[in-house]
């Protein structure tokens, strides 16, 4: 009987010990499951964004990109339209600056030089097939040569003025009278006066606004520059290949813009400044062909003596002489 009582006491003690442990274990298990459930729910919100939200953000991003593209396209189109007006003005200024020896390709190449000065670089013929088509003879002006151009998305037409037979007129004014533009085109004979007999003895200073030139054998030669010329255009026409005696007997000491000419297409400079006794200007920036003819280029131009060493070195020519 005593043994049974002792056994009951032991079992009772064990039971009182085990019950709290079981309860604690159950509580921990419940807490763990609860945390797992909550954690799974919260974790999904942080790492696995719902499809609707993703789709919404993608749509918003696409809309923003499309809006940016639209604005960019509008801005480019607006600039192209502005550039079209600028090009039309350039062509108007040079409408008489082309001859029958020019092709439409020559025209766009030359106009592009002037357009580049205005920050315009994407001008072209609307049809590449017209590139080798020669300009039509038009001594009256504005009737025979309409050229279609393209600027980005803009396609437009420009008209040329007088297109003479293998020659281009010179335009000029006397210093202080820029509103009175003259030229060397003889309307009665429909040809250009190349020797300037009418103004060679006029000692007034002359500003040339358009360089004249003409076909001379295999070359395209610059028309004689008047003796008292003090300024010429910044760009030498690309078609010109000869400066033969172009500044012969020049009286001026210096000609503004002359130093900027791109002479890469010039084949002969022979006698270009012959007897230009007062001429005193450094032309070392000119770039010459390796085989360019410079015979007698400065013959009799005594004031050029101080520049010859520098010019010879820059042009990669043997010592030039007066």
From TrEMBL:
Segments of skewed composition (Basic and acidic residues): 48-84
Record's keyword annotation contains Ion transport: no
A family per Pfam: DUF285
Disordered: annotated span: 27-84
Signal peptide positions (record): 1-26
Keywords carried by this UniProt record: Signal
UniProt key word Phosphoprotein: no
Protein name stated in the entry: BspA family leucine-rich repeat surface protein
């Amino acid at each position: 009987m005593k043994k049974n009582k002792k056994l009951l006491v032991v079992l009772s003690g064990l039971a009182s010990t085990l019950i709290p442990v079981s309860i604690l274990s159950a509580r921990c298990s419940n807490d763990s499951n609860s945390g797992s459930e909550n954690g799974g729910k919260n974790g999904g919100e942080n790492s696995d964004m719902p499809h609707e939200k993703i789709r919404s953000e993608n749509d918003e991003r696409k809309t923003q990109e499309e809006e940016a593209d639209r604005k960019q396209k509008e801005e480019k189109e607006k600039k192209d339209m502005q550039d079209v007006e600028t090009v039309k003005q350039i062509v108007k200024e040079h409408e008489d600056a082309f001859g029958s020896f020019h092709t439409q390709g020559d025209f766009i190449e030359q106009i592009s030089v002037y357009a580049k000065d205005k920050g315009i670089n994407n001008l072209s013929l609307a049809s590449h097939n017209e590139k080798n088509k020669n300009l039509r003879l038009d001594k009256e002006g504005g009737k025979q040569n309409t050229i279609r151009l393209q600027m980005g998305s803009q396609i437009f037409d420009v008209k040329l003025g007088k297109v003479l037979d293998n020659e281009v007129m010179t335009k000029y004014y006397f210093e202080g009278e820029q509103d009175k533009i003259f030229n060397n085109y003889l309307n009665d004979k429909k040809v250009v006066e190349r020797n300037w007999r009418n103004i060679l003895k006029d000692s007034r200073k002359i500003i040339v606004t358009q360089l004249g030139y003409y076909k001379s054998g295999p070359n395209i030669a610059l028309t004689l520059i008047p003796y008292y010329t003090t300024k010429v255009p910044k760009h030498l026409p690309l078609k010109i290949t000869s400066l033969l005696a172009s500044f012969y007997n020049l009286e001026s000491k210096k000609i503004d813009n002359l130093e900027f000419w791109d002479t890469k297409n010039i084949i002969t400079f022979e006698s270009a400044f012959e007897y230009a006794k007062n001429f005193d200007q450094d032309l070392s920036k000119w770039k010459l062909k390796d085989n360019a003819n410079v015979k007698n280029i400065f013959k009799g131009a005594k004031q050029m003596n101080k520049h010859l060493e520098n010019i010879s070195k820059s042009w990669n020519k043997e010592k030039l002489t007066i």
